[in-house]
Amino acid sequence: MEIIFIFVAFICGLAIKMAGFPPLIGFLLAGFALNFFGYEANANLETLANLGITLMLFTIGLKLNVRDLYKKEVWIGSILHTVIWITLVNIVLTSLLWLGISVFSQLSLLHSTLLAFALSFSSTVCIIKILEESGEIKTRHGKVSVGILVMQDIFAVLFMVFATGKIPSLWALLLPLLFFAKPIINKILERVGHGELLPLTGFMLAMGGYELFELVGIKGDLGALMVGMLLAQYSKAAELSKSLMSFKDIFLIGFFLNIGFTALPTVELVAVSLLLCVFIPLKFLLFFKIFTWLKLRARTAYLASLVLSNYSEFGLIVIALMVNIGVMDTQWLVILAMALSFSFVFTGIVYRNSHNQYNQFKHILKRFENPVRLPEDDYIQPKNAEILVLGMGRVGKGAYAALNAISGNKVWGMDADPVRIAKLQHQGLQVLVGDGEDIDLWDNMELSKIQLILLALPSIKDICNITEQLQHANYTGKIASIARYEDEIQALLNAGSDKVFNFFTEAGTGFAEESLQLLKPTVVDN
After folding, report:
1. Residue 524 pLDDT > 50, yes or no?
2. For 379-525, CATH number?
């Protein structure tokens, strides 16, 4: 990647971040700006973009439980949405012929169907980025959204097979044997330790899965996703994902820049792309109606529908394929690239206040909620709870253990990750599944007896959001939270925390106090 690409991406990303929006919007703008000034994408940029997508899908797989795909809200929801969406958008596109816009007048039924199919996908890159930054990828709505994305990826792969006539080889039938390689891969991961070999192993596994699937005639990105899913239940999966996070984010900058290099649009093409963005609210409404019909809670349906309301890079791939084989005109690639960019901006702006939006409109949204709840959506009451620890990672689990030794069964732990909670329950801990940013959870919980809530979460944004939800729920007890950096302390105090502990300072203090206990016998002897 040329230095000018990095510089412009940094300037645009920083400017957009300072304005309060996701930096990825700035990277998109940087691509269009560089294109406008005559720069062209090179092979290195494309390689980085492809590597970023491969690593992203691999890390998605590391966090994905295969059983989540079996749930009807995922597979029925994705199929229903795709079929109904293509039908509705086809009708609308046909009616647009009467507007006299040249690009629409050239559309046949085949063209409009392909365009509707391309627009049916939601952006894996954009959505995973937003869910990761907000710490919601393992929440109920986060897992539903990721499940829908995986199903859409499968639809894309099947389409590519039929459209190109490229049939997987017979060797593809042997791919299930990868399951038997899992113990070997786990042993390798144990041997590499926690240093620089760990991310290198992640690169090897992601690219190895990609190349293996390509060799047997299946889209390589699906291979990276499947290898990640193969390792998802391994204890080191979370650490492996974290070690790849920075690399993935840097490489994905190449992807966003690449979109801007697609082409420079005319005024008419910009207008058409904006017109396509009018369909985005339709995508939201359709997802919301399907999710609530499938008995998801209104909040889960709302947040999942909102984050899925954008267009996808896979749509670009579908249209690019159609352009290459001469089925569609090149201008549609430009239009879709612009519509994709606008939809990213829409999601980035709207989703950042999604929890407050739900709080504001929940009385209306709950009218669409099915009275019958799915088992995993039932609220659990923590019996005799006086202290609640939110976030049962290493810090939260340590805090729970220390408090449990003092207060016994009056201490409960809570985490949004059901897999983690299941493991802790198996160990005998008093814990429950819950999303702290869910106002409905707090409204349905008896908070009058809870005197202290500890927020042991890595994201300051999550802590501030949870504090706000507790205030809305009229919680009157004390709140303690953890800051990783010194400049976060005042922000957390301003948000409503009664006490903020600096993670590294308090860890050092605790280490010193525990170590001093070793000297006490010596002091007594003297």
Report:
1. no
2. 3.40.50.720
Nearest to 138 by CA among 363, 385, 457: 457
Output the pTM of the full model.
Answer: 0.77
The tokens for 4 are: 């000018």
Q: Specify the 3-state DSSP secondary structure of 385.
A: coil
Q: Is 90 exposed, middle or buried (0-12, 13-18, 19+ CB in 10 A)?
A: middle
pLDDT exceeding 90 applies to what percent of the chain? 21
- The answer to whether 120 and 308 have CB atoms below 8 angstroms apart is no
Residue limits of CATH 3.40.50.720 in the chain: 379-525
Amino acid (1-letter code) at residue 520: K
What is the rounded distance in angstroms from the CA atom of residue 450 to the CA atom of residue 318? 53
Distance CA 25, CA 344 (A): 7
Condensed to tens digits (0 to 9), the pLDDT of residues 163-214 reads 666 677 888 888 888 888 888 888 888 888 877 888 898 899 999 999 998 8
Q: What are phi and psi of 278, to 5 degrees?
A: -65, -20
Q: Please state, as a whole number, how many other Cβ atoms lie within 10 Å of the Cβ of residue 359.
A: 16
Q: What is the pLDDT of residue 173?
A: 83
Contact 350, 306 (CB under 8 A): yes
Counting Cβ atoms within 10 Å, is residue 12 exposed (0-12), middle (13-18) or buried (19+)?
buried
DSSP letters along 298-352, please?
HHHHHHHHHHT-S--HHHHHHHHHHHHTTSS-THHHHHHHHHHHHHHHHHHHHHT
Q: Which of 265, 260, 286, 261 is nearest to 275 (CA)?
A: 265
Per the CB < 8 A criterion, the answer to whether 128 and 146 are in contact is yes
| Class of CATH domain 45-368 | mainly alpha
> For residue 468, which of 358, 378, 394 has the smallest C-alpha distance?
358
CA–CA distance, 512 with 396 (Å, rounded to integer): 20
Q: Are 278 and 309 in contact (CB under 8 A)?
A: no
Mean pLDDT of 476-497: 87
Show the beta-strand stretches assigned E in 219-323: none
Q: Considering the chain, tell me which residue range(s) the CATH 1.20.1530.20 domain(s) occupy.
A: 45-368
With a CB cutoff of 8 Å and minimum separation 6, the contacts of 453 are 387, 388, 389, 390, 470, 475, 477, 478, 479, 480
Helix (H, G, I), strand (E, B) or coil at 411: strand
Token pair 């890595």 in the structure block, residue: 458
Contact status, residue 217 vs residue 172, Cβ threshold 8 Å: yes
